[in-house]
From TrEMBL, chain A:
Xref: InterPro entries: ERCC4_domain, Restrct_endonuc-II-like, RuvA_2-like, XPF, XPF_nuclease
Full protein name: ERCC4 domain-containing protein
Species this protein is from: Echria macrotheca
PANTHER family on file: DNA REPAIR ENDONUCLEASE XPF
SMART domains, per the entry: ERCC4
Swiss-Prot/TrEMBL keywords: DNA damage, DNA repair, DNA-binding, Endonuclease, Hydrolase, Nuclease, Nucleus
Subcellular location: Nucleus
UniProt-listed Pfam families: ERCC4
Length: 937, 209
């Protein structure tokens, strides 16, 4: 297939009508393409790229691509090049680390080709002229939905359009939601990208519908699975907790707008992030209690999901972990605990979850001392049985009506949401016909249930592991608690009395249930739920009940170990014909899965709207492949709700976009303030201080600011550039922005500020700034959308106790600012309500000052023999190291220089560490890593 | 509630010009007294503060410059305690930023009388502080806290995962040495990101140098 517009015949792989139409459109003009999820955006992009690649001599830059997409594009380009045998194609070059040296990059750019460049590097290269914008043939922008006015990508596009008016610019997105919120969002987005035309392709677009709903439709069978009563109870109880948490939030933050925080929105996939986003403007002002509740919402949402996804035992284990992590450190008051843990509903969650796994039973004729013992229940997930049914049906199907010969393999593909579920299903399918025979069962001559698949084997094994885990876990948490107590005993704490109220591990209250309910969660003195630990005798009973039977023992245990560990031993080619493949949804990657596996049957274990479309596209693209899809979901569950609302939201977003496009007035300013206003340039050369406006040569050059390259993550450089200030990106050791030879600015957002007070970074930064500059300044920058105040919601009028001259360890932000100014009386503080403001303030501060010297700025703070490359370290492992006792800001550099990674540090002995950090610190570090919570009591 | 005492070192000195300022009503946890000083508030031998309401500043822009000039470089730390009591504060703040540079004053913003009073009290109470440990960074002390801090550095890992991690492996060294698959199983985040987390953590750990 070839298109008339391309310079030479190129082979493309776009079989469907809508894909071809879209491709032709894209070749013709610049536009923003918004495609519904699952309709094959990447395929389109790679074909487009190939058409340019094949022509040769093009310098095309892909902006905003993720690693996965880079890999895909690279592969696809190579494949295309091989198929169409175009000699000029060069494939993709990925530039994503600073490690590609400047010289190499320059050479690469000169050779032209297709590049995918990390935005942070690209912007620096464009600014320093390493990559001349005029030589670029065109830009391809992915994830266009993420490009807001202040983003780095918008900055890149502006630099590009400023210097290059002819190159093409095509933007892609498969996420219509962000384009549909806010005031005329589409027009704004298009202005940011300097694009005139938007091209919308929802699923209900005529061409798309035609392509996908022809006679080659995929067969879809929906199967609604009812939840078990216990699951329903847990779900309801979690929802109740969510409701109460939301109520607490509303109570605690009366000044905030939160009418739409209700239970309905709580069903959405990201309701905790919605709440977080709404609180964001005031995040530095809300009390820590509010922050805690928001954290709780995330936990609760996770639970909503895991009650459906995890098996009963894993869910119980998960709950135990959550409980352990949320139980208060002894010595703190009850206020520090999450409010939902005090609810009856929380009790229901823990209790029901436990009853799904085991329950007490009356022992006939037992003596008083032991009237109740534990008996495993092991409820199975309803979907498992159905999955087995479906597989059986497929088997029958294959047997009775031998497949029509077609191109697809007989493979059965099972799709689920994550790898955990994958593992769970794999084990289930492997073991579902294994019977854990107890003596009683053997006596039965023939059990009608015998051939029914069941998860009993898997669940029993899980329970065994769980009990073992729980024993160890109890010890670990006990040790952690003891540790805390020791620390508390050291410090003189008036509240120490409370610590006694929770003696580790064994102090528990048990409520003895009559009837079937045996184990109940007890409650702590302060009313929250206590973790329940079984009596050793009970556990023994339970263990006996589920001891390994002969049958079970025969099963090889290796299923549990990581199959990847000895890949070579196991690796062999399977016949595609009779294979069951379990895979997790992975966005665009699923297309590859479909193409490679060519399944005849697909079981969607969990719903995913995009995947259904992918199957549709796959089916329609291949004439000769039949597909049947089984679609499993829990009726009346959060899962179902979420799926439906996702489909609805996307549809609404597109409808809104179409409406907006119809009535949109695009103001086109393709030249982003291209040439500098000559009047401004003239005025700058005149010094009003000199009577008559004498000219001053020193200021004749355009104003410039030296910016630390790491600052390009913020929007300020972009905004400064927007105000006609020349940005000089440099690797700075001291300060973030150098405005003049004397003025050096350290920028801190409010959250940065809190963080850098905490770890003492700001103090050191201020110290070094004073060594090299006359006027160091601290810029406290609030976000555009954040409220411009530090004042917390709670008032601090009664805080006299926290004053007191001896108490110099004030914890709130204000007191730290006070301390900072006392420590550095000459440090100036700039308060800015938004990055836009900062840009103006900088401009004003620079007036009548000399322009900064980039070379001097770079040299400041560097030791004579130190190498500038030190900055290239990854900060996260450093932060982790900094948390290790014995590691100080002074010796951390030694450690990072001497070792490869944290793993190496963790495995070092005292003698290895000693030369780097000294004896005492070495012992501390070693102790931290090797301390074994299972061993020491 | 002014208290007359013979100019002792532990009171905030207030210029009579400040009479009627609501900030005084909020000064509750520190004693204060009227005194004839050039600044508005005397917060120590080398520290003083000038109070400026932006509302007033817009009407009388020259006022604050006169006051700053009158200080005659007397104090080492000169606070310009600015109350943001108007909505369109941008212009004034821009101007003050430049002023602070030129005239050697440190701008501190506050949004209410209570907050202003809090700043004054803080300055006075920290007057004799010599060690700035509170802002020089300190580390958590207990093993458990350190542990959680260490494990939760990567954003995607939360406290529950941290506990699960050590719970499964016993010690950190074990956890670090375990393969990504096992670790993911341990941190098995029920919300479906377990593997991503474990992997991510591993990657980050190994990217150290």
């Amino acid at each position: 297939m070839s298109t008339s517009s391309s310079p030479q015949p190129v082979k493309l792989s776009l079989p469907l009508i809508y894909q071809q139409k879209l491709f032709e459109e894209l070749r013709k003009e610049d536009e923003l393409v918004i495609l519904a999820r699952g309709l094959g955006l990447m395929r389109l992009v790679t074909n487009l790229l190939h058409s340019y690649d094949a022509a040769g001599n093009n310098l095309i830059v892909i902006v905003n691509a993720e690693d996965r997409e880079n890999a895909w594009i690279g592969e696809a380009l190579a494949e295309h090049a091989a198929i169409s045998m175009s000699p000029k194609a060069r494939g993709l070059t990925v530039v994503n680390t600073d490690f590609t040296s400047v010289g190499t990059r320059e050479k690469m750019y000169a050779a032209s080709g297709i590049f995918s460049i990390t935005s942070r590097i690209l912007v620096v290269d464009l600014l320093t002229g390493l990559l001349n914008p005029e030589t670029i043939t065109g830009l391809i922008v992915l994830h266009a939905d993420k490009i807001v006015a202040t983003s780095l990508e918008a900055f890149i596009l502006r630099i590009y359009r400023q210097k290059n008016k002819v190159g093409f610019l095509k933007a892609f997105s498969d996420n219509p939601d962000p384009f549909a919120t806010g005031f005329s969002p589409l027009a704004t987005m298009m202005r940011n990208m300097f694009l005139r035309k938007a091209s919308l392709w929802p699923r209900f677009h005529m061409h798309v519908a035609q392509s996908l709903e022809g006679k080659k439709k995929a067969e879809v069978i929906e199967l609604e699975v009812p939840m078990t009563d216990a699951m329903k109870q847990i779900q309801t109880a979690i929802m109740e907790c969510v409701e109460v948490s939301i109520h607490e939030l509303k109570k605690g933050n009366a000044g905030l707008e939160m009418d739409d925080w209700n239970l309905d929105s709580a069903l959405l996939k990201n309701f905790d992030s919605i709440v977080r986003r709404q609180l964001e403007p005031n995040w530095h002002r809300v009390s820590w209690k509010t922050k805690q509740i928001v954290g709780d919402l995330t936990v609760l949402r996770g639970m909503l999901q895991s009650v459906l996804a995890l098996d009963a035992v894993s869910f119980l284990q998960r709950l135990d972990e959550i409980h352990a992590a949320h139980s208060p450190a002894p010595g703190t008051t009850r206020q520090t605990q999450s409010p939902w843990l005090f609810l009856d509903a929380a009790h229901t969650i823990f209790d029901t979850a436990k009853r799904r796994v085991y329950t007490g039973k009356q022992k006939a004729g037992g003596d008083d001392a032991n009237i109740d013992a534990l008996r495993p229940v092991l409820e199975e997930q309803p979907k498992w049985a159905l999955l087995a049914d479906v597989l059986q049906e497929i088997d029958r199907d294959l047997y009775f009506e031998p497949a029509v010969r077609d191109d697809s393999n007989g493979t059965i593909l099972i799709m689920c949401s994550d790898t955990n579920t994958c593992r769970q299903l794999r084990i289930y399918l492997e073991t579902m016909y294994v019977k854990p025979r107890t003596e009683k069962r053997v006596e039965d001559f023939h059990d009608p249930d015998e051939d029914k698949p069941s998860a009993a084997f898997m669940m029993r094994r899980k329970l065994r592991n769980y009990l073992k885990w729980k024993r160890e876990f109890a010890r670990v948490s006990a040790t952690l608690v003891q540790e805390n107590q020791k620390a508390l005993n050291g410090a003189v704490d008036p509240r120490l009395g409370h610590a006694k109220s929770r003696a580790p591990a064994n102090k528990r209250r048990r409520v003895r249930g009559g009837g079937g309910v045996g184990a109940m969660t007890g409650r702590l003195d302060n009313g929250s739920i206590a973790q329940y630990f079984e009596k050793p005798g009970e556990v023994a009973d339970l263990m006996a009940e589920i001891q390994i039977t002969e049958e079970e023992a025969k099963q090889k245990e290796d299923i549990e170990t990581d199959p990847l560990e000895n890949m070579d031993d196991y690796y062999q080619l399977y016949e595609m014909q009779d294979l069951v493949v379990i895979h997790a949804y992975e966005g665009d990657q699923d297309e590859h899965v479909l193409e490679e596996i060519k399944p005849k049957y697909i079981i969607m274990y969990e719903p995913d709207a995009a995947f259904i479309r992918r199957v549709e596209v796959y089916r329609s693209s291949h004439n000769d492949r039949n597909v049947r899809v089984y679609f499993l979901y829990y009726g009346g569950s959060v899962e179902e709700q979420r799926y439906l609302s996702m489909v609805r939201r996307e549809k609404d977003a597109f409808t809104k976009l179409i409406k907006e496009r119809a009535s949109m007035a695009v103001v086109m300013t393709v030249d982003a303030h291209g040439i500098e206003d000559p009047q401004e340039a003239f005025l700058r050369t005149i010094n009003t201080r000199i009577a008559g406006g004498g000219k001053l040569a020193a200021t004749a050059q355009p104003p410039r600011v030296v910016v630390d390259v790491r600052e390009f993550r913020s929007s300020l450089p972009s905004l400064l550039h927007g105000r006609n200030i020349v940005i000089v990106p440099c690797m700075l050791t001291v300060g973030d922005y150098i405005l003049s030879p004397d003025i050096c600015v350290e920028r801190k957002s409010v959250s940065d500020l809190i963080g850098s007070f905490k770890d003492g970074r700001l103090y050191t930064q201020a110290e070094t700034m004073f060594q090299y500059y006359k006027h160091p300044m601290l810029l406290i920058e609030f976000d555009q959308n954040k409220s411009f105040t530090l004042e917390p919601f709670a008032d601090y009028s009664g805080s006299a106790a926290s004053l007191g001259a001896a108490n110099a360890g004030g914890s709130d932000l204000q007191s730290k600012i006070v301390l900072l100014t006392l420590a550095f009386p000459k440090l100036r503080i700039i308060w800015s309500s938004s990055p836009y403001e900062t840009a103006e303030i900088f401009e004003r501060l620079k007036k009548n000052e000399h322009e900064p010297d980039p070379l001097a700025a770079v040299r400041a703070g560097l030791d004579k023999d130190a190498v500038a490359e030190e900055q290239a370290f990854n900060t996260e492992p450093q932060e982790m190291l900094a948390a290790v006792p014995g590691v100080t800001p002074k010796n951390i550099m030694n450690i990072t220089l001497e070792t490869e990674n944290i793993k190496e540090v963790a495995n070092m002995e005292v003698t290895d560490l000693q030369p780097m950090v000294g004896v005492e610190a070495a012992r501390q570090i070693h102790g931290f890593f090797t301390r074994d919570l299972l061993e020491d009591e | 509630p002014s208290r007359i005492s013979g100019g002792s070192g532990s009171t905030i000195l207030v210029s009579p010009r400040q009479k009627g300022n609501p900030v005084l009503a909020c000064l509750r946890s520190m004693p204060w007294e009227y005194s004839d000083i050039v600044a508005d508030y005397g917060l120590g031998l080398t520290t003083c503060a000038l109070f400026l309401s932006l509302k007033y500043h817009r009407l009388h822009p020259e006022y604050i410059y006169t006051r700053i000039r009158n200080l005659q470089g007397k104090y080492n730390l000169r606070i310009l305690l600015t109350m943001v009591d108007i909505a369109n504060h941008e212009d004034s703040l821009r101007e003050l930023a430049k002023t602070s540079l030129v005239n050697n004053v440190t701008v501190i913003l506050c949004w209410s009388a209570a907050e202003a009073a809090r700043y004054l009290e803080l300055y006075k109470s920290y007057e004799h502080v010599v060690a700035f440990d509170a802002i020089r960074g300190q580390q958590a002390t207990g093993y458990a806290e350190r542990l959680v801090e260490f494990v939760t550095v990567p954003r995607a890992i939360n406290k529950a995962d941290a506990v699960a991690l050590v719970g499964t492996f016993g010690s950190l060294r074990e956890a670090v040495n375990a393969g990504p698959e096992r670790r993911a199983g341990a941190a098995a985040a029920a919300d479906g990101r377990g593997r991503g987390r474990g992997k991510q953590q591993l990657r980050e750990r190994e990217e150290d140098d």
